[in-house]
Amino acid sequence: MVAIRDLVQSKRHVSMETLLDVMAGRICGHVPLRRNDKAALNALNQTKVQYRVKGAVAGKYLVQTDSMKANVLLQAALGRVQLNDDSLGFEMDTCVEMALRIVRALMEYCMESDAGALGLMAFRFGRSLALKAWESSPAPTKLQLLEGVDWDLAQKLDAHGVHSIRQLRDMDPTQLGRYLNAWDCEHLLAEAKTVLDFHLQVQPHVITNRIEIIVQNAQLRQVHRITERAAPNGYILLVFTKSRILLLRRDITTTPTTFMVPISGMSSISIHLLHTAQLGMDEELEVQATATDCTVQKVTKQSLHQCTIPEAFKHGRHGEVQRTKRSAKEEDTSKKAFHHHQTMLEPATVIPRDDPSTTSTTKRAKLSTPSLVEFKQFKWCGSPEVAAVGKSTKSRRHHVIPDFEELSEVLLSNGLTNHPPYQRREGSSSNINIQHVDTERQQGLSCASSSKNANDVKNDGADVDTIPMIDDYEELTLEQEFMKSFFGAKPAEKTSDAKVVDATEAPPSASTPAPHGESVAPSSPSDDSPNKSKTPQVAEIVVKKTPATASASKQPKKPHDDDHALLLYNPKEKNPMKRGGWTAGDPVPYAALSKVFAVIEDESSRLIIQDTLADFFRSVIELTPSDLVPCIYLCVCTELAPAYDNVQIGIGDAILIKSIGEATGTTPKFVKDLYQKQGDLGKVAQASRSKQSTLMTFQTKPKPLAVAHVYNDMVKIAKMSGNNSQASKCSIIKSLLVRCDKLSDEAKYVIRGLQGKLRIGLAGQSILVSLTQAFMHPKEQGDKALQAEALKHVKRAFSEFPNYEVLASSLLTVFTRENDQKGVFASQFVELAEFCHLTAGTPVSPMLARPTKSYAMVLDRFQAMPFTCEYKYDGERAQIHILPNGDIRIFSRNFENSTERFPDVKLSIANAAAKANVTSCIVDAEVVAVDKTTNQRLPFQVLSTRPRKNVVVSEIKVAVCIYAFDLLFLNGKSFLKEPLQARREALKGMFQVTPGSFEFATSLDVANTKDDDMESTVEIVRNFLEEAVAGNCEGLMVKTLSTEATYEPANRSHKWLKLKKDYLDGIGDSTDLVPVGAFYGRGKRTGVYGAYLLACYDPETEMYQCITKV
């Protein structure tokens, strides 16, 4: 820790947190395995010495575990992924993130140390590890699977000489199909043809001791300076020897691009064009350089020995790695030389190293440069020792990673620096020296240009002391930080001309304009250098930053450049056009709706909830009215279409738990345990999604979710059926979760929506109130009388035609018309009756009754008002529709289409209406199970045993009888405004009774005049109730007969009262029950029992029989 403190206090750009991560593997509160962690070591021993790590390096990289070395770096990190399956409680995403951060540190160390091929090894291993994290989810391509988890397929391609995308694209499908299945063959060839593959060309320049590397579109096959083509994915060009990195250029996105690389004193150079999109199958070349000529050859299994790559981390498409000894001269050179990446910088004025005018003002920070020899302490598992100079590797085949203390000393002694999570802004450099140019005013940045010959390196190498540094820090998200750890800076801007980057090219003069926003120091090049004719002079570039740079780098940001609609939607904004956060005509972002849900969930006031939702609806109406219906259904949550369409999601928690685990890289057991603790699967998904998003390894971020997309996917899930429907549903759910924004609550409400319960306190009536307020004019929104009148019309329209889509479209149509009553906008709600009215074939919300506890309450309610008493049958309420085309449909009280369940009811109603001239009608009735032999009514439990689908009349075992008691619609005329007496007379006049199949409800009319004695009236009602109970009925329905006797859909009115024996005071029996079980609470009841299972003791069986759950 003292060494860390000293390193940080030296004012170098070092992240203490990153150093701790590298040395201790410390992340998210976890530390690596220690030698005294007996439980972990026992688990390792149980898995035996050798195992394959699941989810991280399965198949391709074999890790050999030593229980005494299980606490160090990569082995500990990867081992933790395996230990997760051994029930040690580690999270998959945490384990993989630890491994990736460690590999990132090693890769950065290799790059900073000019470790040559080790840098390529670190990049490839990091890329492969990132792809293996969750098997490249979401939606990986087949090419990405080759680099990640599909090791068997990669081996097949390797065995048949297919090493690059270009080779794969040119492959004969017939030949490829001989050793691949049809699916793999088809998808590999199709994907390979869509990739814009860059191609390497190398032209030697013997006189100048340089090689010209041309990166161009491999599909052009012409001269490299033809046209510019933009690649869909970036590329990295890495040129190196066994001990040096000569050129590193990230994010090549245009073609052609030319690079000039010096080759003085070098015999073999490796050139690799790497896919940053993690496609693998890179373009690779070898350059054999002599004193008089340069030759280029493709990398094959036989020629790859020039690349010093440890066996355990070699690329999957290449053969056995062989090592060659380095000469003493090369070894001495590698200790002192450090080649700077001149190609990463824009042209600027050059200050020669030997210029005496700069020596007094230029001070360099001292930091020893680690060599490849010092890097030999990293002994990778299952691989020969890296760069053991002058020693054979055959006798040292198996080594483990060094212990924690050893690694700490290596990293700190070699000056490992790891940048904090910041990104470089436009115009800043990549690798630069620290120079204090006029420290009183501002700090300059410098970078040494690359390459001298062997003699120059020997003489001047000791003076080259550098430290990587990044200026102008800007905060990144965790996802961006992770992406930059492997792929570096942002993609370069596209240019119209071919770019030529020369590592040895003379810089522009002082009169040359500097890059935008930068000023350059005057140069005084020295012309008397003795080596001028052979190699260019080593120079340093000093870039002075001016205020213009900062202003130029901060471009004004458009609102929609931000992917998070959460940050843009403002519920407090009064103007609906500005409140929304999205452009008019664009899809409504789901993040905006989730923000509304979050606000409602935190609010307990019903009025504020309604106002919040109304404001959101106003924004949708003003900006994207076509998305109003999906927004309404996602708010309703319990249904995605009219209930009579039978569109139900029907997803259990098991599928959701599995989908969350697969989408976030966790196990179903972990998700289930967390669900049991939190009691809210939506919160579990949100927490898991927030962690998983920090590990996203794809450059192209998924598009933000839109409300319409979420709604359509949920409808797809609801309509899926068949053998593979579960897998298809799981796939759609995973795709939704992956696209959820980690900064919003999208994942939480997506999962709750799939469960069918948002649990935010938003009722269906509140949605209608908010929808009404959204369409009201701002001048009328404060008028409570107008609001009540408008709401009455909206509720009436929805009760008669319960379809949100029709209601919303009708409102949009009505309020686009010309209003005859100027200034009275609420009057337009009356016009809803033109579109939303009672229609045969569309169920209407049934009228409901209020319970009554005594006979006196009945008489108090119906004072001097005639009423009727009807049997309350113990069956299932049915709303029977006869359509003009003769079709008959049956709906339940919840609008469920039960026609398929009751084919015998269709026959009965058809026979009853056969003799009458019935073209269309809606009958309210009760379907009751009956015994045909005894003509006795059976309880509801018997009726519930009837199957719900595919019922055949000849196979029906439970017969039913229809008891009709009301008529709502007849031959195109609505009877809702008619009194019950008129409706009942019309009903009895149109249908014919068939005993045991179709009957009218048994009723008793009571005049109930002022002169009637109250006791005699009570006695009449009591006797009729006893008859109903004796006839296996539940009780009585007491209804107004002529006064205030209209039918009110969806209303639990005092016009209808239900009188049951159980309800009456002093009649109902009580039972002593014992709690025998409990259910874990969820939501607000998390942490306590949410319900109890009660039972009654049966002395005959001496057992407790479960009765109910409360």
UniProtKB/TrEMBL annotation:
Keywords for the protein's UniProt record, in alphabetical order: ATP-binding, Cell cycle, Cell division, DNA damage, DNA recombination, DNA repair, DNA replication, Ligase, Nucleotide-binding, Nucleus
InterPro entries according to UniProt: ATP-dep_DNA_ligase, DNA_ligase_ATP-dep, DNA_ligase_ATP-dep_cent, DNA_ligase_ATP-dep_CS, DNA_ligase_ATP-dep_N, DNA_ligase_N_sf, NA-bd_OB-fold, Sec63-dom
EC number(s) stated in the UniProt entry for this protein: 6.5.1.1
Low complexity: bias regions: 503-515
MF (Gene Ontology): ATP binding; DNA binding; DNA ligase (ATP) activity
Domain of life, source organism: Eukaryota
Main location, first listed in the record: nucleus
One GO-annotated biological process of the protein: DNA recombination
Basic and acidic residues: compositionally biased ranges: 317-335, 491-502
Residue ranges annotated for the ATP-dependent DNA ligase family profile domain, each copy included: 953-1098
Localization per Swiss-Prot or TrEMBL: Nucleus
Region: Disordered, residue numbers: 317-336, 439-465, 491-538
Catalytic activity: ATP + (deoxyribonucleotide)n-3'-hydroxyl + 5'-phospho-(deoxyribonucleotide)m = (deoxyribonucleotide)n+m + AMP + diphosphate
Family annotation (PROSITE patterns): DNA_LIGASE_A1 (PS00697), DNA_LIGASE_A2 (PS00333), DNA_LIGASE_A3 (PS50160)
Family: Belongs to the ATP-dependent DNA ligase family.
PANTHER family tied to this protein: DNA LIGASE 1 (PTHR45674:SF4), DNA LIGASE 1/3 FAMILY MEMBER (PTHR45674)
Protein's name in the database: DNA ligase
Species this chain originates from: Aphanomyces astaci (Crayfish plague agent)
